[in-house]
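Protocol step 4 of 5: obtain the predicted structure for the target chain.
Materials: sequence only (see below). No template structures provided, no constraints applied. The aim of this step is simply to have a reference model before the mutagenesis design in step 5. Sequence pasted as it appears in the construct record:
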Amino acid sequence: MGIDLTGVGSVADLATSILDKVWPDKMSGGERAAAQLAVQQLVQAREDSLLNAQRDIMVAELSQGDAYTKRARPSIVYMGLAFIGLVHVILPMVAWVVLVSTGKPLTGMPTVALPGEFWAAWGGVCSVWVIGRSLEKKSAGGLAGRAAGLITGSR
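Step 4 output (structure tokens):
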């Protein structure tokens, strides 16, 4: 079985399965072929219009003037990473340097931690962003497309 890179095979399979379920088996070979071709053309036209709409949406989003809107969701992710780095890497290093330079014992290191609410909110945003981007990159039809639309606000 070969790989269908063009998508024509899946359109033909869909048209055949529609014919099998909708039209009776008593159709002649010529009628069946004509009906299958008509259904294939309708399905292909739908797929083309869907792809064109997706392309138009992406072009419109990328050509808008507000540069920050294009980066809003990734900005939340990057700021969360910056806060994690600050609280869990930089501040402990600064505290260690200060304690070592003043001769105080290292057992007196201050404990600084991000609150659980941060982790819940940031983890939720990251999860939704990653899932949404993954679904956007896949075919946007069916349930996956609706989920991507809800996450990204494109529908």
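Step 4 remarks: DSSP finds six helices and no strands in the chain. Helices lie at 8-22, 29-62, 67-70, 72-102, 116-137, 142-152.
Proceed to step 5.
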